[in-house]
Automatic annotation (TrEMBL):
Protein name as it appears in the record: Gliding motility-associated C-terminal domain-containing protein
Keyword Transmembrane among UniProt keywords: no
TM regions (residue ranges): none
InterPro entries (alphabetical): Cu-Rt/internalin_Ig-like (IPR014755), SprB_repeat (IPR025667), T9SS_type_B (IPR026341)
Pfam families: CHU_C, SprB
Domain of life: Bacteria
């Protein structure tokens, strides 16, 4: 146990820390980041006493840890392997500290209590652990010893707060504890107990806290009594999981006990049952637990013999020589020390065999149970009467309760009665672990070459870092140190067998090899050393002698030769068992002999079974019939009066031999009778040539070529191939016949498709012979102006159907051409009702293509052509453009002299709403609405205006107004 100010400070600091975490946010979820994938210490958990390596570099020292995907990345000497979850995720890997009691995992981001609990509810805490060092062996000193404690939780199950990391060969191992929350927040902490420099390296992963208890599971271990008459056997029940507390443990059977520990001592040979329940009503029951002294005698089973018969008796097991006795005395025992006896009793006799000798060895250890107090032993610990309040390392005292000596220890009773003395230790911390906890005060005298047994009882008195006790006898270690129980106050017996050899004295020493200064507290009690117990083995067997008996059997009635014979009984009416010979024979009268089984004192017996020869039944012959004619039932009584049955069933289709089987009890043999059945004639007919479906079928003949008459079915069918059955008229001894008339289904003629044409194109005449060679005619007449479906009608006699062929005639595109100004451009436009998929080609008067769109801009008068193609068909049209004048191209002069050239002001290409002409003095001399080409140099009154320059204002219907000048000159 930690001592002094370090213990006080740790305890005070811990209480203060609890006050702080008690006010934490209670909405936190239970165990986030349990698989370490979302971050390191501070994200859902906290590492207190180990130092983080980041990044990992293949080298580590005791007291360091890493959050990594492979232990070998942290330390190249570690065993490589993946995490528990996926094999590729994160885990925490620890290089075990050289200091004991180092906390390596605690709940919460800052290492305190977390919320999410409900007081009174049971929870299960679970995580996975594995050893990662090749130095970890079966020596417990090399394995990490892990301690767990829970704040705000009680009824922790298992109660043992300490466990060892698994061996490397075991891989990942799941550790689970259940507890009952006592508040709405709780804290769970894990620490390393030991400070071993070798091994002590491990990895953890997948932490969780879930609602519910562990499964209620029980097991038991038993120790047989040393001797058949001894009562030192025991049964220990171990429970895990379930809901605490458990009920009292109950033992029934050969002995009855009830306790609260599940450890039942003082048991002798017998059969036992144990049961115990948890608080939720789940029950663990184990029945039929057999305790049997080892090496007990195995003796022959009881037998029954005739007077004077020789009976072998055998024995094995036990220790040393055997001794046989008989009651009453039996002179046939000539060598009473032999394992096998051949006895010949004349009366029922009980034989008893013994082996070994009983011993009651004396305990040679003085004050073995410390009832004498501080006497008759040696220790290198310091006796301290009162170690409170901090405890004293390497101290001890003789007490009845560890808690009464040091209040930090658990409250326990001694191993013997629960109220006696025990020796309690506050563990030594010397680094050499070579401090004697207990040794005998004076050498003990022993007999050379004798087997002895040394035992002691140990219990932990604190929950942390259990002591590890090593025993030496005459300075020789007796093996790997034994770890004290992890659960406080649980007494464990440790035993060693020792042969004295040439020694005449012996000394013992018990050392605590754990040097931790926290925990490592234990108690000793009931130390014994005595000669090994020897047992007296004794068992009896009875040979029952019975008088001789003659077997008796019931007579067997005579049988007919061949009848079944039931097996003869192998037990006589007076209970004699045996066998019969020879084998049963149902063909001849035979006498059989019964030979009794050995050991029944019975003689042989005989039994004769009479076998009679059978009568052969006879019957009148039956005249032949035609196959299918009715057969009268055969007589069931023969001419001799024998009754019976016929088989097989009557068959009027084939010649058959029938067997008559006489009814039982008539001693008659089987008889046979053959009835001849003639085969009918099969009618034949001339074949009918195949027809085409729908053709007329002539009626089939009703008389076959052989002259057999009859009828046909089904009715004639000229639409499908059909097999017709001819049924002969009765009385002709003819069978049915069939005739198949093939009806061919008409073929649909096939023709090559005809490509679509344009309206008006020439159509080639359609072929009058199909791809299959069918000839025929087409209708209606070919039409090259419209899409038409034509029908092909095959010529008669070809078994072909009519078919159709559609020739698509695409229409020529229809359109008109519009012209006019679009802005300043004179544009020709194709106008169509449906312009989709149309292709355009514009040509000028010289035949040169000038455009390929639906419109084209022209700049000079003339004749223009447009070809429109759609669906592979084309049509064309022309337009005569008289003027291409638009805005910006209004003529600059006129010569109204009737020579046909510029005789008038031409605005026909424009959409003019109003034209006004002004002279050079600004007077309006001419006006005209909707003007086109009416002004040829006259005034509004029609008088000729003088030659000269005039100004105009043009108002357009679809554009802004335009002003300009124009020159008029009649002399040109």
């Amino acid at each position: 146990m930690k001592k002094g100010l370090r213990y006080l400070f740790g305890k005070t600091h811990f209480l203060f820390f609890l006050l702080i975490i008690g006010s934490a946010d209670m909405s936190a979820q239970i165990l986030t980041n349990g698989n370490f994938e979302n971050g390191g210490s501070g994200v859902g958990f906290f590492v207190h006493d180990y130092t983080l390596i980041n990044p990992v570099n293949g080298t580590s020292n005791p007291g360091f840890y890493a959050r990594t995907t492979d232990p070998a990345l942290m330390n190249s000497t570690y065993i490589s392997g993946g995490d528990h979850t996926t094999g590729t995720g994160r885990m925490l890997v620890f290089d075990g500290s050289s200091l004991a009691n180092r906390y390596f995992w605690t709940t919460g981001d800052t290492g305190g209590a977390i919320g999410g609990f409900t007081a009174g509810t049971t929870y299960t805490f679970s995580f996975w652990i594995k050893s990662v060092s090749n130095a970890v062996t079966t020596d417990e000193a090399t394995r990490a010893s892990i301690g767990i404690f829970i704040v705000n939780g009680n009824n922790m199950n298992p109660a043992n707060p300490n466990f060892l990391a698994p061996l490397p060969s075991e891989g990942w191992v799941n550790i689970q504890y259940s507890f009952v929350a006592t508040a709405n927040n709780a804290m769970v902490r894990l620490k390393t107990n030991n400070a071993g420099p070798v091994g002590n390296d491990f990895a953890v992963d997948d932490f969780s806290i879930t609602v519910g208890a562990l499964p209620f599971v029980g097991s038991y271990a038993s120790v047989n009594p040393t001797c058949p008459t001894g009562n030192d056997g025991s049964i220990t029940v171990n429970l895990t999981g379930g809901t605490l507390p458990y009920t009292a443990y109950s033992l029934t059977g050969t002995a009855t006990q009830t306790n609260n520990s599940g450890i039942f001592n003082g048991l002798g040979e017998g059969t036992y049952n144990v049961s115990v329940s948890d608080a939720a009503g789940h029950t663990y029951t184990q029945t039929g637990i057999v305790l049997e002294a080892p090496n007990n005698l195995v003796l022959s089973a009881p037998v029954t013999a005739c007077p004077g018969d020789t009976t072998p008796l055998t024995v094995s097991g036990g220790t040393g020589a055997y001794t046989w006795t008989a009651s009453p005395a039996d002179s046939s025992i000539t060598n009473p020390n032999s394992a096998t006896q051949n006895v010949s009793p004349l009366v029922t006799t009980t034989y008893t065999v013994t082996s070994g000798t009983a011993s009651a060895p004396v305990n040679l250890i003085q004050n073995s149970d410390f009832s004498l107090g501080n006497a008759a032993y040696v220790t290198e610990y310091l006796q301290v009467a009162d170690p409170n309040p901090f405890g004293v390392q390497t101290s001890y005292n003789i007490v009845t309760n560890p808690n009464a000596w040091f209040t930090a220890f658990s409250s326990c009773g001694d191993n013997t009665s629960g109220s006696g003395n025990m020796m309690v230790f506050d563990g030594a911390t010397n680094s050499d672990a070579n401090v004697i906890a207990w040794s005998n005060q004076n050498p003990i005298t022993v007999t050379p070459n004798t087997d002895y047994t040394f035992t002691y009882h140990v219990a932990s008195v604190s929950a942390d870092s259990p002591a590890r006790l090593e025993v030496t006898i005459n300075g020789v270690s007796q093996g790997t140190p034994v770890t004290a129980p992890g659960t406080p106050c649980l007494w464990n017996e440790v035993s060693y067998n020792w042969n004295s050899g040439s020694n005449t004295t012996v000394n013992f020493a018990i050392y605590d090899k754990n040097v931790a200064d926290y925990g490592n507290d234990f108690a000793l009690d009931d130390i014994t050393f005595s000669e090994a117990i020897t047992c007296l083995y004794q068992k009896s067997v009875t040979v029952t002698v019975a008088p001789g008996v003659t077997p008796a059997f019931n007579a067997v009635a005579p049988i007919c030769a061949g009848e079944s014979l039931a097996a003869l009984p192998t037990t006589s009416t007076n209970a004699i068992t045996g066998t019969w010979s020879p084998a049963l024979d149902n063909t001849a009268t035979t006498t059989y002999t019964f030979t009794p089984d050995a050991g029944q004192c019975a003689s042989t017996a005989t039994l004769t079974i009479t076998v009679n020869d059978p009568v052969t039944p006879t019957f009148a012959a039956v005249a032949p019939i035609c196959s299918g004619e009715t057969l009268a039932a055969l007589p069931v009584t023969s001419i001799e009066g024998v009754t019976g049955t016929w088989s097989p069933a009557l068959n009027n289709t084939a010649t058959t031999t029938y067997t008559f089987t006489a009814a039982a009890g008539q001693c008659a043999s089987n008889a046979t009778l053959t009835i001849t059945v003639n085969n009918p004639v099969t009618p034949t007919f001339a074949a009918v040539a195949p027809i085409c479906s729908g053709e007329t079928l002539a009626a089939l003949p009703v008389t076959s070529i052989e002259g057999v008459t009859g009828t046909w079915s089904p009715a004639l069918n000229n639409t499908a191939t059909t097999t017709y059955t001819f049924t002969p008229a009765a009385g002709q001894c003819a069978s049915n016949a069939t005739l198949t008339i093939t009806v061919n289904q008409p073929v649909v003629p096939a023709f090559a498709a005809v490509d679509p044409i344009c309206a008006g194109e020439t159509l080639t005449a359609l072929p009058t012979t199909s791809n299959e060679g069918f000839t025929g005619t087409w209708s209606p007449a070919l039409d090259n102006n419209a899409t038409t479906t034509y029908t092909f009608t095959p010529d008669a006699g070809q078994c072909a159907t009519a078919t159709t062929l559609t020739i698509t005639v695409n229409e020529l595109p229809e359109f008109t051409i519009s012209e006019g100004c679009e802005g300043n451009s004179y544009t020709l436009v194709a106008v169509q009702g449906d312009a989709s998929n149309s292709v355009y080609a514009w040509y000028n008067a010289g035949g040169t293509q000038i455009g390929s769109g639906s419109s084209v801009v022209v700049t000079a008068p003339g004749v223009y052509e447009l070809m429109v193609t759609k669906g592979g068909c084309s049509s064309n049209d022309t337009i005569n453009v008289l003027s291409t004048t638009c805005f910006g191209e209004i003529q600059r002069g006129i010569s109204p002299n009737n020579d046909g050239l510029n005789d008038y002001f031409d605005l026909e290409a424009f959409d003019v709403a109003q034209l006004q002409i002004f002279n050079r003095y600004g007077m309006n001399v001419y006006s005209k609405s909707n003007y086109q080409n009416e002004w040829y140099g006259q005034s509004d009154s029609g008088n000729e205006l003088p030659d000269g320059t005039y100004f105009y204002v043009i108002d357009f219907a679809d554009s802004t107004s335009k002003t300009g000048w124009i020159y008029s000159n009649r002399q040109h």
